[in-house]
Amino acid sequence: MASLFSWITLFVLFCSVSSELILEEGYTVTTVIDGHKLNINPHSVLARPGSSDLLLLDFSNSHLYTVSFPLSNESEVKRISSEEKLGYRDGKLGLARFNKPRSFAVDGKGNVYVADRGNHVIRKISTSGTVSTIAGGLSKAIGKKDGPAQNATFADDFELAVVAERCILLVVDHGSQSVRLIDLKPEDCTTTSPSAQIFGLGAVTVWTLGLGLSCFLGLFVGILVRPYIIPHTGRLHPHQIQQEREALPDQFGETSSDTLLWHQKRNC
């Protein structure tokens, strides 16, 4: 009896789960990077603004790679960090060393922030390819200390996220069960979108083009309406001058029309 009750319970659970499942078709899964063949362990990927490559973080070997688009099994995977493994070294990206980097994030300018878990610090890779430490560089200890970024401490398990609209870097500190916030520099939050170009460096060009266009339109409209404006400027056309002369009286007080009428009567 108990066995029958168990089967009924499982059947009811199966039916309830199946009734809540919604399968949407039209998607395909494709393996584009095989870590076994490349001897790497992909942990996180990131699309960098303005770059034609994808950034890949190898947590196990503490390396950073770029992967060329379009992504496929033939995509070129290129190591961009030092060939040495675990370590801590700033400077040029090709010589920089990391220690079990956990995750990374990118700001509006294209700078990459790396959660260097093994070193308990946050590193920054600038758009020019220079690696620097922005938080946790002085203490190098495990903990949860706020304050100036260089004196701050972090747990041995944390991840990063950038909120570009707010110009902030969020630290999800799993070890201390908290979310920390770092204000980024204003110059690291600029974007190169078309609207930013129009209202930024391209403003002078836009205003110059607009002024030139308005002058051209004004000249074009002036040429079109000129024939309709000249007759009202006070200048008389030859036909108008002749009519005025005929209407003027001569020395006897007679107009040209009166003289013509007198000559017609005389001929009769």
Automatic annotation (TrEMBL):
PROSITE patterns: NHL. Residues 1-19 form the signal peptide. NHL repeats lie at residues 98-128. It comes from the Eukaryota. The chain crosses the membrane at residues 198-225. SUPFAM superfamilies: NHL repeat (SSF101898). It holds the Pfam family NHL. Coiled coil: none annotated. Keywords: Membrane, Repeat, Signal, Transmembrane, Transmembrane helix. PANTHER family: NHL DOMAIN-CONTAINING PROTEIN, PTHR13833. This is Uncharacterized protein LOC111317413 isoform X3. It comes from Durio zibethinus.
